Amino acid sequence: MFRFTRKAARATLLSAALALAFGAHAQTDYNQRFLVQYNKIKNPANGYFSPEGVPYHSVETLMVEAPDYGHETTSEAYSFWIWLEAQYGRVTGDWAPLNAAWANMEKYIIPSSKDQPTNSFYNASKPASYAGEYALPKNYPSPLEFNTPVGQDPIGNELASTYGNRDIYGMHWLIDVDNWYGYGWCGDGVTKPSYINTFQRGAQESVWETVPHPSCETFKWGRSGGTQGFLSLFTGDSNYAKQWRYTNAPDADGRAIQAIYWANLWATEQGKGAQVADLVKKAAKMGDFLRYAMFDKYFKRIGNCVGSTTCPGGTGAADSNGLRDNQHYLMSWYYAWGGALDSSAGWAWRIGSSHNHFGYQNPMAAWALSTQQAFKPLSPSAAGDWGKSFQRQMEFYRWLQSADGAIAGGATNSWNGNHEQPPTGTPTFYGMFYDEAPVYHDPASNTWFGFQVWSMQRVAELYYASNDPQAKALLDKWVPWAIANTRLLPDGTYEIPSTLQWSGKPDTWNSASPGSNATLRVTVTEFTNDVGTAAAYARTLSYYAAKAGNAAAKDTARELLDRMWNKYQDAKGLAVAEKRKDYLRFDDPYNATTGDGVYVPSGWTGTNAQGAVIDSNATFLSIRPKYQQDPDWAKLSAYLAGGAEPSWIYHRFWAQADIALAQADYGRLFPATGPSIVVSSSTLTVPEEGSASFGVSLSEKPSANVTVAVAKAAGGDVDLATATPSLVFTPDNYATPQTVTVTAARDADAINGSATFALSATGLNGASVLATEQDSDIVVPVELVVSSAAVSVPETGTQTFTVKLASAPTGTVSVAVARTAGDTDISVSAGASLSFTPTNWNTPQTVTLAAAKDADSLNGVATISISAANAATRTVTATEIDNDVKTCAVVFDTSNDWGSGQVPSIKLSNLGSTPLSNWSISFTESNAFTLSNSWSGTFSVNGRTITITPVAWNGTIAPNSSVELGMQISYSGAKPVPTGLAWAGQSCDITVK
């Protein structure tokens, strides 16, 4: 079955000369494989990263799984990127890419202070208002239950005291990298990446039932009327407030911490620990906040928590064992936080999760955060919490391990998400109820083998790093089960488990005498050759084999790694064809009987930023009309129309990274010994219609001639080739490099193709070189980022905007800024020539515009063009605000006031001869207030500042016409009056009464 099994007689068939030269030993250089795969991922032509350097969930865009579009990304992808760069630092000694990856993570997927602006109002004694979870999306919106008891947050004030503010340091789980949906940053519609969310409505809500929505709810989209946004699809309330909210996926943050643990270990071994020391501090800080995943959703009491109104809120106080009454100490499915956009509203919230899936546990991170001094978080109780979490997680695995060896689903502190009474006989774990498929049911969350290998890989790392006996006991049972269900096929491929079917239940947990779980059984119902899952599986086997000395695990890992490498390589990585029958759900209408399809309540109508109507007739596709512009749409459309089921090739970031990591892990844990083929470089750039070379030699002197074969791996670019099929080394010239030349033929495309050239010989550790064509037709694009598309310049004054690049250029980029049309009184007074380099590309540079005094009374307009080679020209519309003209009038009447409230009237008049469109007025009230109602305009409140923009029917004011607006506010103290009242871009007569 295994390649390492050889009959003794076979050795006699080896070539006598080769046996004399080096003997029979041969091992692939798995670290070289890591670099080949790493370079494919980092090759810009392969499309793994956005112009901002953000890793996409997949290279391909037509992709629906947990993310509903391939060019979204997840905290999962970021965590694998961090791990990938950590391994790169180990292999090369270069830690700069790891630091850059963490910085990118902080910039784009860890919300900044600006993204979570009202955290200062968070009250740890009342973390959030209760809203139950329900079985089906049709049971939503879930009403807010303000009188249902919730517990106290025992770590909120500790974290604020430790870090000096109430900001959360954790990743939001999902971002729209290219702003495909169009929500932008907090409703601006243009900024990318942008924070979004999808899942909100119960365990039956698969991706096919989701309604994507912005994480910053401004009411700009969603339900018609501008007072609810998307909120009323999810929660029931009498009055909705504009707000921000984020959700953390704890397994991703735990994985990032886990990666930094290894980075610190490897960098320290290299004498370069200082280069990652700051990342260690940040990983520890992330672990401090990750403790929110250890609490009941509403901080209720843990154990036998039945009845939303009768199960009490936890106090957060510790018992005699140091255990808090509302902390389950496991890694739950999420934690979340949010707050009001209005800084005068004065509220923010936080929740944990009651649902615990074995696949999210990370005892390796818990061990590091509780025992490794550099990783102990700063908060006083944090390391202790993680120590308790470590033990609780190990018990959790033991409780859920089936009689066969696989790990079952999980446990919940809130049956059905609403603290219901579970069926009689439901086993418990510290009073929490066994849940066969925690969190989601379509498909059931306990069926995917990937959760087995993701989770047990962490257990295997823990065993390798700490020699923990609990980890060894789990793996001693799990590994034989997994290997018994692994098929190594005669054609050089493999099959591993894909879908699992469960029966029975675990025994109720007794820590003093754990049960045998004799009735808890698992059956493999489907197998797969998926490369990502196989890589994670190989990593698990490798760590276990290295510590336990288990030959079967070691060689199964090697077989999987070698077989996927030999069979499934392509220019972008490793991939296999997939069938996706679930894609037939793209256009399925809502089915009230099954609950499948997008549910929108009758009478609920709105739009999203793609312009799609959202109502009770919505489908997954209808609310994502941009899918019909996708390059693969024709392929999907034919399938939906009844055509043959197509195959799909996907390059998921996590899978491609895990493939690279698996190769590197094997190379580190089982280093090659004996003589090797040595190459001068593992990568090579070949100009189109040109050539490039690398050198080859041997590490040790052979006793006889050795022939090294040079072969291009399957799936490589056909334009790349070598005329050197082999090299011969003798005992005299073995150390003298011989040249292999790779050529790149002229082609019609504009793609930097790549190919791997493998070098091998019996008795030698092999090597490989990744050759990448530098296509002469490719022009590396430059994307200019301008801070504003329109500015107003006061006559005799100045106004500024900024320019930067969207991504690092390959060299210096010169940017020219000039007035190209319009009013000659407007000029570029500073910043006409800007220069960006690979080091300052993302630092905004300022352009200053000036408006000269003129004799007319017109608000002149000019076009300012920003241009650079290989870049799309950007323009800024500059409008002169002439001192001599009054094109409009604003009358703000506050006389309707009764000492604690006010209904002012606001009249906007067009005094000019041309229509005024897209108007916007803003002002700051002189005292704090609460806006309770408004009409005839879209009112946006930020602290005491109000900005009013049009509604659909009054966006244009004709000459000599007016628009009247109104609002109702309440206040205490002095009467609020508007200050700084202005009509954007206009010179107006302003009257305040």
Number of strands: 55
**What general outline do the C-alpha atoms trace?**
globular
Biggest sheet character: 6 strands, mixed
Low-pLDDT segments, ≥5 res: 1-19
What is the typical, i.e. mean, pLDDT? 92
Strand proportion, as a percent range, falls in 25-35%
Distance between the termini: 90 Å
- Counted by DSSP, the helix tally is 15
Helix content: 10-25%
Radius of gyration: 31 Å
Structural class: alpha+beta
Question: Care to describe what's here?
Answer:
This protein has 993 residues and is of the alpha+beta class. Helices cover 22% and strands 26% of the residues. It has 15 helices and 55 strands. Strands 44, 45, 46, 49, 53 and 55 form a 6-stranded mixed sheet that branches. A hairpin with a 6-residue loop joins β33 and β34 (767-774). α10 runs antiparallel to α11 (469-484) and α12 (531-548) packs parallel to α15 (653-669). It is globular. It starts with 15 loop residues before the first helix and ends with a strand. 47% of the residues are buried. Mean pLDDT is 92; it is low at 1-19.
Write the layout of secondary structure elements.
Layout: H1 16-22, H2 30-42, E1 72-74, H3 75-92, H4 96-108, E2 130-131, E3 142-145, H5 156-163, E4 174-176, E5 194-197, E6 213-214, E7 216-217, E8 222-223, E9 235-236, E10 243-248, H6 250-269, H7 277-290, E11 335-340, E12 348-351, E13 355-357, H8 363-371, H9 382-400, E14 410-412, E15 428-429, E16 432-435, H10 449-466, H11 469-484, E17 487-488, E18 494-503, E19 521-528, H12 531-548, H13 551-567, E20 569-570, E21 573-574, E22 577-579, E23 606-607, E24 613-614, H14 633-640, E25 647-649, H15 653-669, E26 677-679, E27 683-687, E28 691-698, E29 706-712, E30 720-722, E31 726-729, E32 738-744, E33 754-760, E34 767-774, E35 784-786, E36 790-794, E37 798-805, E38 813-822, E39 826-830, E40 833-836, E41 845-851, E42 861-867, E43 874-881, E44 888-893, E45 901-902, E46 905-910, E47 916-917, E48 921-925, E49 930-935, E50 938-942, E51 945-949, E52 956-957, E53 962-970, E54 978-983, E55 988-992
Parallel strand pairs: 3-9, 27-34, 36-43, 44-55
Antiparallel strand pairs: 1-4, 2-3, 4-5, 5-6, 7-10, 8-23, 10-11, 11-12, 13-14, 14-16, 15-16, 17-18, 18-19, 20-21, 22-25, 23-24, 26-28, 28-32, 29-31, 29-33, 30-32, 33-34, 35-37, 37-41, 38-40, 38-42, 39-41, 42-43, 44-46, 45-53, 46-53, 47-52, 48-51, 48-54, 49-53, 50-51
